[in-house]
Amino acid sequence: MASLELPARSSIGPSLGERLHGWTTTVDHKRLGLLYIGTALVFFLLAGLESTAMRAQLVRPESKLLSPEVYDRLFTMHGTTMIFLFGMPMLFGFGNYLVPLMIGARDLAFPRLNALGYWLFLFGGMILYFSYLGGEGVVGAGTAPSAGWFAYAPLTGHAFSRGHSIDYWILGLLVSGFGTLATAVNLATTLLTERCRGMSLRRMPIFAWMILVTSFLAIFALPPLTAAQIMLLFDRTLSAHFFDVLQGGSALLWQHLFWFFGHPEVYILVLPAFGFISEIVPVFSRKVIFGYSLMVAATVAIGFISFGVWAHHMFAVGLSAPLNAVFSGASFLIAVPTGIKVFNWLATMTGGRIRFATPMLFCIAFVAQFVFGGLTGVMLATVPFDWQVTDSYFVVAHFHYVLGGGTLFAVMAALYYWFPKMTGRMLSERLGRWHFWLFVVGFNLTFLPMHVSGLLGMPRRIYTYPAGLGWEPWNLAASAGVLLQAAGVVVLLVNIARALRSGEEAGPDPWDAWTLEWSTSSPPPPYNFAVRPEVSSRRPLWDRKHPEDPDGRHE
Amino acid sequence: MHGTSLVSMDPAASPTRLVSRAAAHFLQIGESLAIAANVAAYCSSRFLSASPTPGVEEIGRAGQREARRRLATRARLVSFLRTTRHRRGRTVRPAFPAEETDTSRDREVRRARPASQAGSAHLRVRVGWAAVALLTALLLAAGAAHASDRLPVHLPKVLVPASTPAATIRELTNLLFLITGAIFVAVEGTLFWAIWRRRRGGDEEREPPQVYGSHPVELAWTVAPLIVVAVLFLVTSRVVFSLKPRTPHAGALRVEVVGHQWWWEFRYPDLGVVTANELHVPLGDTPRPVFLSLQTADVIHSFWVPALAGKTDLIPNRVNQLWIEPHEPGVYLGQCAEYCGTQHAHMRLRVVVEPEADFRRWVVDQRQPAPRVPGVDVGRAVFTSLTCASCHTIRGTDADGTVGPDLTHLMSRATLGAGAAPNDRAHLLAWIEDPATVKPGARMPALRLDESQLAALVTYLRTLH
After folding, report:
1. B236, A328: Cβ pair inside 8 Å?
2. First to last CA, chain B
3. How many structural domains is chain B composed of?
4. Mean pLDDT throughout A404-432?
C-alpha cells in the first residue's frame, strides 16, 4: 500500500521501520483517515471493556465486585471515551478519508494541519488514559477521573476531586479538542473550495453535506467547552472562582457552558451517521435518494436549532417555567427535520430492489432503533416527564438508542460498505451477518430493559442497588445483552483480520455504487484520481452507467 | 408488598430469608410485566374511547346497545387492570380529583354494568387478593418486616403515582405513550412494509424506477410533524405552568431539605424539628400540599421520590422549590438522582406519609430532647467526650455538631447511612466500628474505639427513641 510513497528498495517491500516512518510522517488524507478509524476502534474496545465491567457489577443487587470509586471511574471514562475518543474521531476519520474522494479532490485543503489534528487527538487520548497511572500524582497510586463525562461543578473542584485526575481529564480533552477543531476547519475549507468541476453545492453527495454542517457545528460548539475547561483548570490550579461555589462561583455556569457544547455535540455525532445512511440506503435499494434538497435543508435546520436546545439537559435544575417551556418547544422542533430524514429514507427504500448485504442490514437496524431513540427523545423534551426520568436509566436507554443504536450502527454500516474501498478487500458476508445479528439482539437486550428500570425509579450512575425494588430482572437482561454485543465485536475483529489476510479482491466498485470514490481503484492511489473528474449530476457514476438516462435532467 | 424489607443486605441467608427473597423476586417480575400490560391496556382503552366516551346519562337512555357493548369491553379491560393493580397491592381509591381521571369514569361504568359480567371480574379480583394475602403472609412469616414499619411501602415507580404532581405527570405520560406509540407503529410499520414489498425477481440488471422526490409529499411530512409538536408544546407548557413552584399559603407545612454527601437533612422551620433521611408528612382528610425548599451543603444533588413528584436538583448557592401532595398513607422510597460522588448510590430517602394524628405524635416526640435512660451514662460519655459530638447533635446533651445527621431520635429511623443498612444493633455496631465496611467512602471516620467503648456507645445510641 505504501509503495507509491516509499519506493521499495528490494523485492520484499519496505522494512517495518520504513513503513512506520511512512505512517507517522504521512499527510495523505486516506492514511490519516485510516489512522483515525483504527485509533478510534482501539478506544472503542477500551470503552467496551469499561462498560462490560460496569454491567458485571450491576448483574445482581448488592454486588461487591467493584468498589464505588472504581465504578465511578469506569462510567466517567466510558462516557468520555465514547464521545471524544471514539465517536468524533471515527466520524471525522471517515470524513477525512471520504470527503476528498467524494468531491473529486486530491487531498484536504491543508494536509499538514490534518496530520496535526490526528496527532493532537491521539496524544489527547493518551493524556486522558495516562490518568489511570498518574492521576493521584504519586508514583504507584493511580486514579482516573470520576466526576462523570459531563463533569458537573462543584464535584470537579479541589474540595471534592483531589489529586490530578480531573486535570488529566481537562488537558486530554483540551488537546484532542484542538485537534478536532483543526480537522473541522480543514474539512469545511475543503468542501467549500476543493470540489471538482461541475460539483456545485447542490450536487455534493449528502454525506459531504453532513460533514460540512458537522464541521460548522464543531467550529461553533467546541470553543465554549474549551473556554469552560480552561476556566476549570484556572479554578483548580490558580484558585480562580468561576465554579467554586464556596467563593461565589456558579455551579450552573458550568452546566450552561458544557451543554452549549454538549447538545450540538450530539448532532456532531449523529449527522455524519445520517450521511452514511443517506449514501448506503440508496445504493442497496437501487434508487436515488428521495428528496435530496429537503434532506440538505433539514440538515442545515438541525444545525441551527441544535444551538438553541441545550437547557433541555437542565430541566431539573429549577429554571423558570417560561424558560422550560421555550427549551421544550425548541427540542420538539428539532424532531421535525429529523423526522423528515427518516421519512425520506423510507421513501427511498419503498419500491426499491433491496439487497440485504451487511451494510444495508446495519442501515435498516439503524432506522428502526434511531426512530425509537428519537421518540423517547420527544418524550424527554416534555418537561414534566423529563422531571421524572432524567438522570434515571430511562435517559441512559434513550441516548444509547440514539448514539449506539443510531451512530454506532451507522458506523458499522459504513465500515462494511467502505472497507473494500479502503483496503481493496471484501469483508466476509457470512461473518458480517453473525456480527449483525449478535449486535442487534445484544444491543436491544441491553438497552430496552433500561427504559423499564428507569420507570421503576433506578437512577443512573449508582454502583449498586438493593434487592426488592423490582430492578433485578432488567439489570440481569441488560448485562446478558452485553455478552452478545461483545461476541459481535469479536466477530467483527476476526472478520477484519481475515479480510486483510485473505479477503476476496474488491475491485474499484464492488457495490455498483454511484459516487465518485467508486470510480478510482481500491485502495485509491495517493493522488486519488489520475485525472480530476468532472461531474454533471449528483450521481456521476449513474450517468456513466446509464448514458441513456443521466441524472442531471431530473435534478 | 406490605412489610417487605426494602434493604436486605444481611449477608447471612437463612432458609426463611431465602424463601422470602425468592417470593419477592417472583412478585417483582410479575409487577414489571404488569406495568407493560398496564401501558398496553391503557393505550387500547384510550383507543376504545376515541369516539366520544359515553357518559352515565347516555347509558340511561334506551336503545343504545352500541354504547353498552363498548362499555362492557371497557369494563372488562378495567377489571383486568384492577386485577393487576390488586396484585401489586395498590389501593383502588382514586388518587386524584375525580372528574379528571379515568378511574372515576371506570367506576361509573362499573355501576352500570350488567351483573352477569361482573361475576368473572370479581372472581379474578378475588384471586388477585388471595395471591397478595398469601404472599404477604409468607413474607411476614419469613420475618422480613421491619418492626417500625406498619405503613405500606410504595416502590419508586414513575407510573404508579400517589401525589398530585406525580399523577399529573402520569396523565401527561399517557398522552406521550399514545402519541409516540402511534408514530412508532406507523414508522416501523412502513419500514417493514417497504422491506416486505421490495422488488424481487425479474431482470436483476434493470434498475427500479428512480423517484427523485415529490414536493406535495415532502410538504405533507414536514407539516404533519409540525402540528404534532405544536400540540405537544401546548400541552407541555400547560402542565409546566400548572406544576411550577407555588408560594406556600399561611399555615402550610414547609420543610427545608438540605443535601449532604451522602445523606438528607430535613428541617421543619415552623415545628422546630430536625431529622435525617426520613421525611414525615401528614395526610389529612383531603390531600394538602407540602412545600419543600431544596438546598445543598456541598455538591449538586437531586431530590427524587417518583411516586410523589418529578425530581428537582439541589444546587449550591440556590434555593429550589418543590411541592408534593400525597394521597395515600405509606412509606415512599426515593433517592438522590444527580451523581454526587462516591456514595451517590447510598443517598436514599424515605417519605413517611401518615395520618394527621400520627404525624402530630411524631412531631411531639421529635421535639423532645433525647430521652434520659438510666444505665447508659458510659455510652453517653463516650459520645460527648470523643469526636462524635463535633459532628453530631444529640439535643439534651453537650453534643451539638452540625456536620453529620442529628441523632437525637436516631432509633425512630428505619435505616442507617441514608439507606445503606437497616437500623439494628448489629449494623449500628458495624457502622460505628468502621463506616467504610457498610458504606465505603462515607465521610464518617472510623474512630478506633475499644470493644467496651463500642458496646457502651451502641447501647446508648439504641436508647435514642
Report:
1. yes
2. 26
3. 3
4. 97
The DSSP result for B432-457, as a single string, is HH-HHHHSTT-SSPP----HHHHHHH
Alpha carbon of A44: minimum distance to chain B alpha carbons (Å): 24
Name chain B contacts of A474, Cβ cutoff 8 Å: 32
Closest CA to B334 of B144, B166, B89: B166
**Angstrom distance (rounded) from CA B341 to CA A75:** 12
Looking at the structure, tell me whether residues B326 and B423 fall in a common domain: no
Q: What is the CATH number of the domain that holds B390?
A: 2.60.40.420
Which has more pLDDT, A200 or B27?
A: A200
User: Which residue is closest to A287 within chain B, CA to CA?
Assistant: B210
Point out which residues pair with A505 in neighbouring strands.
A425
CB-CB contact of A275 with A211 (8 Å) = yes
Q: Does B334 touch chain A (CB under 8 A)?
A: yes
- The pLDDT tens digits for B91-122 are 333 333 333 333 333 433 333 333 344 444 44
What range defines the domain where residue A83 resides?
A: 27-552
Order of strands across the sheet with B348-355?
B153-154, B330-335, B348-355, B278-283
Taking all residues of chain A, what is their mean pLDDT, rounded to a whole number? 94
Residue B94 grid cell: 382514586
Q: How far apart are CA B181 and CA B162, in angstroms?
A: 25
Mutate to test the interface with B, among A326, A387, A451 (most CBs of B within 10 A): A387
Please state, in angstroms and rounded to a whole number, the distance separating the CA atoms of residues A316 and A333: 20
Q: Is B398 domain-assigned?
A: yes
- Find the farthest-apart pair of alpha carbons in chain B and give their distance in angstroms, rounded: 99
pLDDT in tens, A336-377: 999 999 999 999 999 999 999 999 999 999 999 999 999 999
Whether residue B57 is contained in a domain is answered as yes
B131 within some domain:
yes
Q: Tell me the β-bridge partners of B283.
A: B355
Give the closest-approach CA distance of A488 to chain B in angstroms. Answer: 24
Other Cβ atoms closer than 10 A to B178: 16
ipTM here: 0.93
Nearest CA of chain A to the CA of B133: how many Å? 18
What is the 3-class SS of A8-20, one letter each residue? CCCCCCCCHHHHH
Output the pTM of the full model.
Answer: 0.84
- Let me know whether B20 and B121 are in one domain: yes
CA B169 to CA B191: how far, in whole Å? 32
Contact (Cβ atoms closer than 8 angstroms) between residue A288 and residue B212: yes
In this prediction, residues A400-405 reach a mean pLDDT of: 96
Q: What does the pLDDT read at residue B137?
A: 44
B465 residue type, one letter: H
**Quick one: pLDDT at residue A132?**
85
Starting from the edge strand earliest in sequence, which strands make up the sheet with B273-276, in order? B273-276, B263-268, B253-260, B290-296, B320-324
As a whole number of angstroms, the distance between CA B160 and CA B154 comes to 9
Query: A168 and A130 in contact (C-beta within 8 Å)?
Result: yes
How far apart are the CA of B464 and the nearest CA of chain A, in angstroms? 27
| Cell reading at B282 | 401528614
Considering the domain boundaries, does residue A406 fall inside one? yes
Rounded Cα distance between A348 and B396, Å, is: 78
* Domain coverage including residue B69: 15-145
- Residue at B211 is within a domain: no
The DSSP line for A346-377 is: HHHHTT------HHHHHHHHHHHHHHHHHHHH
Do B140 and B284 lie in one domain? The reply is no
List the single residue in A with minimal CA-CA distance to B345: A462
Is residue A230 situated within a structural domain?
yes
Question: B141 with B245, same domain?
Answer: no
A298-313 residue pLDDT tens: 999 999 999 999 999 9
Classify residue A460 as exposed, middle or buried by CB count within 10 Å of its CB (0-12, 13-18, 19+).
buried
